[in-house]
């Protein structure tokens, strides 16, 4: 989770349009903004540690605690948890990190200053999305590497499973990023950002089958979780890392890969629409 932001980040594109007098293109402005976003993230040690390391800490702690088999299967409980924590890592970087980052940039004046430049407004979101994609990919590699090295998590055994890992990770990242950008509209200021974002992050982990086998959760909890993307991401990752026989204990009796893709695409589009209507470049909450 992102708790702090590097001081006074640069807009990164202001100088060039002043010299040329022309509106920067979306691709050039997006590339410039992406460089600024990535540089700010990797230079901020607190952001780097809390965003990337929090899921890693959960993986090491709970991976060391959990033991035994999932009831009715030959699958280790630890193996189920490790597939789920990858979904939690995606939500940490793409939802929590982005929502808190936008709230901080509203308070530090970055959003207002960018609105005064000739930069295409969409370049701001391109930069955020590139930052989220890079950090999420790094997070996934880190979690899978640690799970493989410390707990013996098996890598995907077929090209189809690697393909599923790729699209589940990509769609889940975009869905959580769009949801995070839209959710940032509910955060009144940067001081309350972590308090408003973290409970959602934690509750969705518990009801989405990250810490416990999803099929063992109460029926009402499974119903609530099915409305959110974390449950579907975790199910997709279970189809990648767990034995094929494990799908028998899923609520539908199969992996539902087509359903997973549709839900994540729907969340991406819904988040995009909500962000378009709720994001403000100026206003009482934008300093």
TrEMBL record:
Statement: the UniProt record of this protein carries the keyword Membrane: yes
InterPro entries: ABC2_TM (IPR013525), ABC2_TM_bact-type (IPR047817), ABC_2_transport (IPR000412), Nod_factor_ABC_transporter (IPR051784)
Membrane topology qualifier: Multi-pass membrane protein
Region (Disordered) residue spans: 1-21
Identification of the protein by name: Transport permease protein
Keyword line: Antibiotic resistance, Cell membrane, Membrane, Transmembrane, Transmembrane helix, Transport
Regions that span the bilayer: 48-68, 80-104, 125-153, 165-186, 193-214, 257-279
């Amino acid at each position: 989770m992102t708790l702090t932001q590097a001081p006074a980040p640069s807009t990164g594109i202001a100088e060039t349009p002043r010299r040329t007098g022309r509106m920067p293109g979306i691709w050039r402005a997006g590339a410039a903004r992406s460089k600024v976003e990535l540089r700010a993230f990797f230079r901020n040690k607190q952001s780097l540690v809390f965003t990337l390391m929090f899921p890693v800490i959960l993986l090491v702690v709970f991976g060391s605690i959990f033991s035994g088999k999932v009831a009715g299967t030959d699958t280790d409980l630890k193996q189920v948890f490790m597939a789920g924590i990858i979904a939690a890592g995606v939500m940490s970087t793409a939802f929590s990190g982005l929502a808190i980052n936008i709230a901080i940039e509203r308070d530090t004046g970055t959003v207002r200053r960018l609105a005064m430049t000739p930069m295409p407004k969409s370049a701001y979101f391109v930069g955020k999305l590139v930052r989220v994609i890079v950090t999420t990919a790094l997070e996934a590699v880190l979690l899978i590497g640690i799970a493989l090295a410390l707990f013996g998590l098996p890598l995907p055994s077929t090209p189809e499973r690697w393909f599923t890992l790729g699209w589940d990770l990509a769609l889940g990242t975009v869905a959580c990023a769009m949801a995070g950008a839209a959710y940032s509209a509910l955060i009144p200021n940067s001081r309350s950002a972590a308090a408003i974002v973290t409970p959602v992050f934690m509750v969705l982990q518990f009801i989405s089958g990250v810490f416990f086998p999803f099929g063992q959760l109460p029926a009402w909890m499974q119903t609530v979780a099915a409305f959110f993307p974390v449950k579907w991401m975790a199910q997709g990752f279970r189809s990648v890392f767990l034995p094929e026989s494990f799908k028998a204990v899923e609520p539908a009796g199969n992996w539902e890969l087509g359903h997973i893709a549709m839900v994540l695409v729907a969340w991406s589009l819904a988040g995009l629409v909500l962000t378009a209507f709720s994001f403000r470049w100026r206003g009482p909450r934008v300093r």
